[in-house]
Design goal:
The chain has 296 residues and is mainly beta. The protein folds into 2 domains: 139 residues, Acid Proteases (Cathepsin D, subunit A, domain 1, Beta Barrel), CATH 2.40.70; 106 residues, Cathepsin D, subunit A, domain 1 (Beta Barrel), CATH 2.40.70.10. It has 5 helices and 28 strands. The longest helix has 7 residues. It starts with a strand and ends in a 9-residue tail after the last strand.
Length: 296
């Protein structure tokens, strides 16, 4: 059984869960089969991941070539059936959990990590990520993506941006200067990334500041260029402010996301925003903040 003791169950179709940040990861406090710990909300991951260091392997089957953004894992993994998945009394019919070693995240964040919530967990819900109130609300949706309990959403939408559902990844059509790019929206990415292989004209919108070493896929450290990204727009119309971004070779990301992308929009994109993610409608909806913001 998976439970979230801090969740506020609004109805059988809607649940509100407070979150905390571990550096730049969205963390939901929860329990799996009586064990207390933390779950990472990660739209860049395909499935539910459970940390094999905390759970005995039983009744498993092998799955090949599974990729995850936050775990940096590309190896074959075992899958374990979850008997039930719930947030307090809020039931989620579930499924399989992929067994992976998440000890490197636990060591880095100094937290007990029980698992990672990916697309297969989130697909049947509209996910409302509210950085202003530090909470995630899951609205169960019908077959076409409409909220079953629509009356619980009382905030004001400001813009709707369609996305492509490629592989298991949310892919946004963006424009950098005049260059069209496909960017992954990944709540498990602690910083934005831009592929060093994009056109020279688009690279003029990136201003490098310093070289750093970061751990990439397979946990191997590589040298990358950290800087700032300017003049990015969503759907060729919605402007985004200046964002911290790392320029890097993203060729391995195709395996992790299941599709080729030109960059990744992570924490620096979603921080201090309120947004809805609807997989069935393939829409990102931005929600009005209760205060005015200025772009830098």
């Amino acid at each position: 059984m998976i439970g979230f003791p801090e969740a506020e169950v609004l109805s059988e179709n809607t649940v509100r869960i407070p979150f905390q940040l571990a550096d730049h990861l969205i963390i939901l406090k929860g329990s799996i089969n009586g064990q207390q710990g933390n779950l990472i909300l990660d739209t860049g991951s395909k499935n539910l991941v459970i940390n094999k260091n905390h759970f005995k392997q039983r009744h498993t089957q092998i799955k090949q070539g599974v990729g995850y953004s936050v775990t940096g894992s590309l190896q074959s993994v075992s899958a374990q059936r979850i008997e039930s998945f719930n947030f307090n009394s809020f039931e989620i019919p579930y499924k399989l959990g992929d067994l992976l070693d998440l000890s490197h995240i636990e060591k880095n964040k100094k937290l007990k990590i029980l698992g990672v919530m990916g697309k297969s967990v989130l697909y049947d819900f509209e996910i409302y990520i509210d950085f202003y109130l530090k909470q995630v609300t899951l609205f169960r949706t019908d077959n076409v993506g409409n909220r079953i309990d629509d009356h619980f959403f009382i905030d004001t939408p400001t813009a709707e941006i369609p996305f492509l559902d490629h592989g298991h990844c949310i892919v946004l059509n963006t424009t950098l200067g005049t260059t069209p790019l496909k960017m992954a929206l990944d709540t498990g990415a602690e910083i934005n990334f831009l592929d060093s292989d994009i056109s020279g004209e688009a690279l003029k919108k990136f201003r490098g500041i310093k070289r750093i070493k970061l751990r990439g896929m397979g946990h191997k450290k590589s040298e990358m260029l950290a800087g700032r990204l300017y003049d990015l727009r969503l759907d060729d119309s919605y402007p985004i402010g200046v964002m911290r971004t790392i320029l890097a070779d993203l060729s391995d990301m195709k395996e992790a996301y299941g599709t080729r992308v030109d960059g990744v929009l992570g924490y620096d994109f979603i921080a201090m925003k309120r947004l809805l993610i609807n997989y069935k409608k393939k829409l990102i909806t931005f929600v009005k903040l209760p205060y005015k913001t200025t772009r830098t």
